[in-house]
Amino acid sequence: MDWLFGLGYFGLFLGSFLAATVVPFSADVLLVGMLAAGSEAFATIAVATLGNWLGGLTSYAIGRIGKWEWIERLHVSRESLERQQHFICRYGAVAAMLTWVPFIGDVFAVALGFYRVAFVPMAFWMLVGKCARFVTWAVLWYWVA
Questions:
Q1: Largest CA distance in the chain
Q2: From CA 81, how far away is CA 5, in angstroms rounded?
Q3: 118 phi, psi to nearest 5 deg
Q4: Count of domains in the chain?
Q5: Helices marked H in 1-40
Q6: Cβ-contact 115, 85 below 8 angstroms
Q7: Domain boundaries, position 27
Q8: Has this prediction a pTM greater than 0.85?
Q9: What is the pLDDT of residues 72-104, one digit of tens each?
């Protein structure tokens, strides 16, 4: 991750973007590292949020092109898909706030696209969730530091 720190805000953007896709990466560590290095809080939160949000929208787009047949070839049970679909249909776009959650957040983003949740409200709630995540980390950092 050192090479990303060396890129400054661009590295934060890139790392945050990758962390919101299926690449296992921690945008939180990058954010705290930038804050610890003395970066301006508002800009750091804004860049991390933008990168993570655009990465989440990319995962949504990947889900959008998905087909049931592809998922079934991965040996995912129909019952599991139907449970997930029920959750997504029940909570709709508001479920996009959960895309910040480590590990399962990426799955939520892909599922939102796969189940064709309306883009604009989903994008809004995803942005809210991701921004809240980084604001929380920044507040915790300043509280501890």
A1: 50
A2: 39
A3: -55, 130
A4: 1
A5: 2-6, 9-19, 27-36
A6: yes
A7: 2-144
A8: yes
A9: 777 777 788 888 888 888 888 898 999 988 878
Per-residue pLDDT, 109: 92
Q: Give 94's DSSP letter.
A: G
Q: Return the half-sphere exposure (C-beta side, CA atoms, 13 A cut-off) of residue 113.
A: 20
Burial class (CB in 10 A: 0-12, 13-18, 19+), 26: middle
C-beta separation of 129 from 100 below 8 A? yes
126 neighbors 99 (Cβ within 8 angstroms): yes
Does 1 have pLDDT greater than 70? no
**Inter-residue contact 108 to 96 (CB < 8 Å):** yes
- Interacting residues of 141 by C-beta distance below 8 A, sequence separation 6+: 32, 35, 36
Residue 129's CB is within 10 A of a number of other CB atoms, namely: 23
The single-letter code of the amino acid at 110 is V
